Amino acid sequence: MKTLQIKAYGKLEDNLSFADITKPTVSKNQVLIEVYAAGINPIDYKIVEGALKALSKLTFPAPIGFDVSGVVIEKGANVTNFNIGDKVYSRVPTDFPGTFSEYIAVDANVVNLKPANIDFTEAAGLPLTELTTVQSFNKVNLKSGDKVLIHAGSGGIGTFAIQYAKSKGAFVYSTTSTKNLAWVKELGADRVIDYKTENYLDIVKDIDIVYDTLGGNYTVDAFKVIKTGGKVVSIAGEIDEESAKELGLNGVIRFILRLKSKKITKQALKKSAYYKFIMMTPSGNQLNDIKSLVENNKVKPVIDKIFAFSDAIDALVYQKSGRAKGKVVVTMK
User: CB–CB of 149/212 below 8 Å?
Assistant: First the structure.
C-alpha cells in the first residue's frame, strides 16, 4: 500500500516521502480501515520538525498522521461493536500514527461511527480538534453562563471550540483578524475581537475560563483576564507538574519544565487560579458524544482546503503557513 513517511527531522519539503509498504494486519482488538480521508493538525508538522523530540523520539522511517475517516474492511476476533462496511472516524493513538496511508489498523476502542449527516472529508477534520476541545472544557467544568475566551477563532481548533462552548451555553469572546470578523461571529462568538485593531486585554475582564491555543505570552496574559479563582486550560503553553507526571516524564525533565513554567505558576497563585496543560487522549466514547452534537446540528465541521493524497506534503506545508480558515484535509478517495 502507499503511505507517507517521515525520513528525518527537519523541513517538511525535504524530510517526507511516499513509500510502498505491506498492508497492515489486524490484532484481535483492532479494525482495519480503508482510509478515505485524513485530517491535518499542527502536531503533524511539529513532529517532522523535531519539536516533540523531548517527549518521544522517532525511529525512521516513521509514519505520520492521526485523524482518519474511512470504511472498516476487516476486524479482529474480539471486535463486536463494528461490522465490515461501517463508515467510521477516529483519532488514532499517539504511539500508532499513520493515517496518511491507504489503510490503517486501529484499536476499536478509539473508533466510532462517523456522523451520518457529513461526508468522509468533513469527518476526517474533526477527531483531534473535537477531542482536544471536549477534554479541555471537561477539565475546567465548562457550564452554562460561563464567560470564555477562545483565541484564534478562525483556526481549526477555534472554529470547533466556539461552537462547542455555545452548545454548552457559554458566553464566548474570540479573537481573529479583520477579514474573519463576520465569519467568526456567524460561528456563534458573542464578542469577536479584531486583534489587528483592538487589544483583547482592554476588552476581556473577569471571565471564568481561557482556552489557550496559542501559548507564549498569551498563556501568561490569560491570568490578566480571568477572575480570581478562574481557570486557564492550555494546549500550547508550558506543561504543568500534574501533566508532566501524567506523561511519565523523568525527574530531570520535570525540573526543567518547572523552571520554564515558573512565570505561569506565579501568575496562577496571584489569582488563586487553576492552570492545566492538556494532552488529548483518544476516545471512541467521546467521538460518539460529538457525533450526536453534529447530527443534531449543534456543531458542524469547517473545512478550509482539500488536497489529494499525492499532494499531502503540500497540504502539510499549507497547514504550517497559518492561513487555514478551518481544517485542512487530505483525501485518498
Answer: no
Residues 228 and 267 reside in one and the same domain: yes
- What is the pLDDT averaged over residues 44-73? 92
Domain span including residue 323: 2-126+301-331
Domain count, the chain: 2
Would you say residue 283 lies in a domain? no
Together in a domain, 30 and 94: yes
Chain centre distance of CA 228:
29
- pTM equals 0.92
Residue 90 lies in a domain: yes
pLDDT at 135: 96
Cα separation, 287 vs 112, in Å, equals 6
If asked whether residues 178 and 208 sit together in one domain, one would say yes
- Residue 34 near residue 1, CB atoms below 8 Å: no
- String of DSSP letters for 233-275: EESSSPPPHHHHHHTT--HHHHHHHHHHTHHHHHHHHHTT-EE
Strands 62-63 and 103-107: unpaired
Question: Going by DSSP bridges, is the β-strand pair 171-176/191-194 parallel, antiparallel, or unpaired?
Answer: parallel
Angle value at C-alpha 315, between 160 and 327, nearest 5 degrees: 10
Q: How far apart are the C-alpha atoms of 301 and 238, rounded to whole Å? A: 29
Question: Using an 8 Å Cβ cutoff, are 67 and 39 in contact?
Answer: yes
- Residue 18: strand pairing partners: 4
Same domain, 65 and 156: no
Q: Which of 142, 174, 180, 135 is nearest to 158 (CA)?
A: 174
Please check whether residue 115 is in contact with residue 94, taking contact to mean a CB–CB distance below 8 angstroms.
no
Separation of CA 226 from chain center: 24
Sign of CA dihedral 151, 157, 162, 167: negative
DSSP 190: S
pLDDT in tens, 258-315: 777 788 989 899 999 999 999 899 999 999 999 999 999 999 999 999 999 999 999 9
Query: Is there a cis peptide before residue 24, judged by omega within 30 degrees of 0?
Result: no
Whether 215 is covered by a domain: the verdict is: yes
Q: Looking at residue 262, what is its pLDDT?
A: 84
What span, in angstroms and rounded, lies between the C-alpha atoms of 225 and 267? 11
Do 315 and 185 share a structural domain?
no
Tell me whether residue 240 is in a domain: yes
